[in-house]
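ASSEMBLY PREDICTION REQUEST
Request ID: AP-0331
Submitted by: J.K., bench scientist
Number of chains: two
Total residues: 335
Priority: normal
Notes: Please return the full assembly, not individual chains.
Input sequences:
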Amino acid sequence: MSNWLLIIYCGLITFLTRFSMIALLKKEMFNDRIREILSFVPSAIFPAIIFPAIFLDNSGDFQLENNPKIMAAIIAMLIGIISQNIIATIISGLASYWFLIFMV
Amino acid sequence: MNNKFRVFLKGIFDVSPLMIPVVPFGLIFGVLSIDIGFSPIETMGMSLIIFGGASQIILLQLFSGGASSLVIISSVGAVNSRHLLYGAVVSEHLSDLKLIWKIVISYFLIDQAFARSNEYLKINKNKNKYFHLLGGGVTCWVIWQTTTFLGIILGAIIPEKLGLSFAVPLTFLALLVNDLRKLINVIVIIVSGLVATFGFDYVPYKAYIIVAGVTALLTAAILTKLNKKNE
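STATUS: Completed
Returned structure:
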C-alpha cells in the first residue's frame, strides 16, 4: 500500500469513529457498564506505546542496563503524579534524559 | 455581534488553556515523521487528513517498525475507540443538525474541544451552540498544522543525538497522569505495558498494541466487576 493510501485509510477510520459519535450513536446505545469500560481505553492502549519505547532498543531486544530512559521515565512519572501537569511531565522527562546522557 | 460568531469565539476562548500541551506534541510529530523518512508533504498530509495526535504517532511508530498496513489501520482504530465513549454524551445536543454540519464537526472534533464544549452544551439552550465545538476544534486545528509545519523545519536541523523519539513515550505518559492515581487504572496500565513489551517480538504482524489493549481492557472489565462486588 502506498504511503498516501495508508494515510487516507488512517484518516478515514479516525473520522468515522468521530462521526459515529455525533451522527449514529444514541444515548441509550451505551449502558453505564460499557461507558465505564471504554473510559479505560487510554490506560489500556497508551502503555503499549510507552513501555516498549522505554524498555526495548531499536531491534526489539530488552535494554535494562545502562538505559537512561528508565530513570528519566520514572522521574517524569513522579513529577506527573505530583503536578498533574502534562507539560511539566514531558519537560522533566526530557530534561532528566538529557542530563543522564550528556552530563553523567 | 452575530450570535454564531460570539459562540464560536467563546469556543476558542474556552479551549485555549488546553492547547498548551498540543504545541510540543505537534512539534515532536513533525520532527519524528521526517526522521522516519516521510516527506514533508506526506507529513503535512497526515496532519491535514488524519488530524489526531495519538493516531498519527501510532502510525509513525508502527510504520517505522515495519508493520503491515492492515495492522497500522486497525491499531489506529483501536486508539480511536475512546471517541465512541463521547458519542453517547454529545450526540443528543447535535441531533437536529444537517448532515453536512455533522460531517464538518466530526472532522474538527478532538478530545480537547469535546472536553470543553461538553460543559457548554449541557448548560446552554442556544440553537447555535454547536459553533462552540467548531471554535474549539478550529483552534486546535490551526495549532496542530502550525506546529507540524515547524516540526518539519526543525526536524531537518535537530541532531539525532538529542534522542527526541523519547518524547513519544513521555507524551503518552503525560496523558495518563490523572489515571496514575487510581489503583485499577495503574493495574490496567501495567498489564498493557507488560503484554506489549513481552509480546513485541512474538505477537505476529506487530499487532502488539491491539493484543495489549484488548488484554488490558478485559482486565479492567474484571477488576471493575470485582470492585463492585466488594462494595
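REVIEWER COMMENTS: DSSP finds five helices and no strands in chain A.
SIGN-OFF: pending second reviewer
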